[in-house]
TrEMBL record:
Tagged with keyword Oxidoreductase: no
Segments forming domain Flagellar basal-body/hook protein C-terminal: 91-134
Residue intervals of the Flagellar basal body rod protein N-terminal domain: 8-33
Gene Ontology biological process: bacterial-type flagellum-dependent swarming motility
Main location: other
Name of the protein this chain belongs to: Flagellar basal-body rod protein FlgC
């Protein structure tokens, strides 16, 4: 298969993977304060995403795919909020294991990776267009 077409496919798989990563980060951020609804209930548990390289037999290129979306095993923190509906007998509420700074850093990294894949697609399209223009000139 043509290397330019292969690069388009690899970059497109990267776009899909980073898009899914951004979705998971957004879900984590949206639920960063979601507690349980009764005393002792577990709050929202942060999700993590894992990627895998999969060989595409048609192009011979290694594509990126999401291999797993799994809960983060980091322990929950507790906050003293005696009036909260999820507070235990001592007034402590379990809070999600979501660190907003970590999520923001992950979002920036995913955004940069997405942009890099998009730039690869633009460059490959431009090279294909230049090749077609050269072939028309002959």
């Amino acid at each position: 298969m043509d290397p330019l077409i292969s690069s388009l496919k690899v970059a497109a798989s990267g776009l899909g993977a980073q898009s899914e990563r951004l979705r998971i980060v957004s879900e984590n951020l949206a639920n960063s304060q979601s507690t349980g609804s009764f005393p002792g209930a577990d709050p929202y548990q942060r999700k993590t995403i894992t990627f895998n390289a999969e060989l595409d037999r048609a192009s011979g290129a290694r594509m990126v795919e999401v291999s797993a979306i799994s809960p983060d095993k980091t322990p929950f923190t507790t906050e003293f909020q005696p009036g909260h509906e999820a507070a235990d007998d001592l007034g402590y509420v379990k809070m999600p294991n979501v660190n907003v700074l970590v999520e923001m850093a992950d979002m920036r990294e995913a955004n940069r990776s997405y942009e890099a894949n998009l730039q690869t697609i633009k460059q490959a399209r431009e090279l294909i267009s230049m090749t077609i223009d050269l072939m028309r000139g002959q």
